[in-house]
Amino acid sequence: MEPDQSPRIRVDPVTETLTVDFLNSLNRRKFLAASMAASSVRSLPQLANGSENANPDSELNTTPIRGKAEHVISIWLGGGMGQIDTFDPKRKGDPKQRVAGSYYDSIETAVPEVRLCEHMPKLAGLMDRVTAVRSLHHEVIDEHAAATNRMHTGRPISGTVTYPSLGSIIAHERRGRDTSVPPYVLIGYPNVTRGPGFLGTRDSYLYLTDTSQGPAGLTRPDGITPQSQSRREKLLDILKRNADPTTDQRLLDYDAAIEQSVKLSSPEFMSVFELDREPEDLRNSYGGEFGQRCLLSRRLVERGARFIEVSHNLNFLNGIGWDVHNEGIQNQHRLIQELDTAVATLMTDLESKHMLDKTLIVITTEFGRPPEFDSGGGRGHQGSAFSCVLAGGGLLHCGAWGATDEISKKIVANPVSVPDFFATICAAVGIDYHKNLYDGDRPVPITDMGQPIGELFA
Fold it and tell me: How many domains does the chain have?
């Protein structure tokens, strides 16, 4: 048998110098191949360590983008906002003749060539501070619950891991110094998709469903005076001091929740829910209950809350909210008008208080709507191409990012995955979207490997 003529390449782990041993003479071609292989081996430590000589396009060599926003107000449009009837209008269709297209006419905005639905005139004048991301996509179509979970956690539902919501992630990463203010507030009905998942109750939310009453369970009964409250707190402190020490995380979390509840029930914090302290003309400019929720979100941001979700799946306007199948689409314009009024007022209100650049406003929904009309004149579900919106937050806004075809059916430019959208939000508030969270000792990427829309950052 012919003797082995392959070179043996060794890398000294200390000096990183190379030695090539030859068992037999090599021809020139084999020597050059060996030299190239040796050169590649030598470069591996530099790539792994993120050396300045590494490929600048390598993800291992990428420094995370960090924006300057400090708060997020996330407006949730439960039911599925139709992008073609709001932030991505196209040619007008005809539900009676079953001609695919928009339900409404479109109007010009402050950004040339970016148009909105005719029922959004106030936001149209502010689109230079807004980016409608028109190329969101995921594969969930018919399941509202699964799509809602996807747009809150950034991931498919798992049978082994309960993933944290975006609100809980931001609360976990950007918890404020003032423990008398909850980092995460939900204005709407709670469920597991909004929750902290494996992060634990410390990163959960405070919630309320009625802006006229404030959070349930925090308002003291009329018979509890400050003196009696003080006595109760002293008694609780005695019981805690005399209890056996514990390392059970559930009990520790429960004690922490009690401590925070006592702080939050104080008149100082509860005053944030007294919307009648605001000028009457400002309150009126926000509009009805949804508008008051947006006003409350601004007051919570002022007090230091990091993440506020404001729910707009209020069914009393058209009977079905944003899930506009069949005849439900006939009064969809009322939802769009209310959204336009409240969000535009929120933006100008924040701007007047020099807070818009520090507050990222996000409008999300579980999926969009197809351009075709169903048998009743409404629309079905579409996850393959839909719109979500970013405003303020110190971003370099461009009116719209991404593009769909002539009927908003397919993405034709700059697709954005849900992890990418989450990474953009995390980057805007200075969170490292490359890092891992931990479910016990199991590492979980914070955004499922998403990459932010870099063009929105300076």
Answer: 3
Task: Report the alpha-carbon distance of residue 47 to residue 51 in Å, rounded.
Answer: 6
* Across 177-191, 207-221, 437-451, least confident range: 207-221
What pairing do the DSSP bridges indicate for beta strands 359-364 and 106-108? unpaired
Residues found in the chain: 458
Which of the two residues, 244 and 132, has the higher pLDDT score?
Answer: 132
**Rg of the chain (C-alpha set):** 27
Range with top average pLDDT, 19-33, 86-100, 209-223, 261-275: 86-100
Query: How far, in Å, CA of 44 to CA of 66, rounded?
Result: 28
pLDDT single digits (tens) 174-211: 987 677 889 999 999 898 999 999 999 889 999 999 89
Answer yes or no: is pLDDT of 17 > 70.
Answer: no
The Cα angle at residue 148 between residues 144 and 149, in degrees rounded to 5: 120
Q: Is the dihedral of CA 112, 113, 114, 116 positive or negative?
A: positive
Residue 269 lies in a domain: no
390 and 412 housed in the same domain:
yes
Q: What is the DSSP letter of 59?
A: G
Give the domain range for residue 259. Answer: 220-264
Task: Give the three-state DSSP class for 65.
Answer: coil
Q: Residues 120, 142: one domain? A: yes
Residues 18 and 132 in one domain: no
Same structural domain for residues 45 and 77? no
pTM of the model: 0.82
135 and 80 together in one domain: yes
Least Cα distance to 408 among 100, 118, 117, 104 occurs for: 100
Above pLDDT 90, what percent of the chain? 66
Under a CB-based contact definition with an 8 Å cutoff, are residues 5 and 24 in contact?
A: yes
Token pair listed for 161:
């891991």
Task: Read off the tokens for 253.
Answer: 């979390």
Distance, CA of 105 to CA of 68 (rounded, Å): 37
pLDDT > 60? residue 25: no
Among 264, 265, 321, residue whose Cα is nearest residue 290: 321
Same domain (yes/no): 196, 343: yes
Chain centroid to Cα 12, Å, comes to 47
Does 203 lie in the same domain as 190? Answer: yes
**Range list of H helices, 243-310:** 249-264, 267-270, 280-286, 289-303
113 and 182 both lie in a single domain: yes
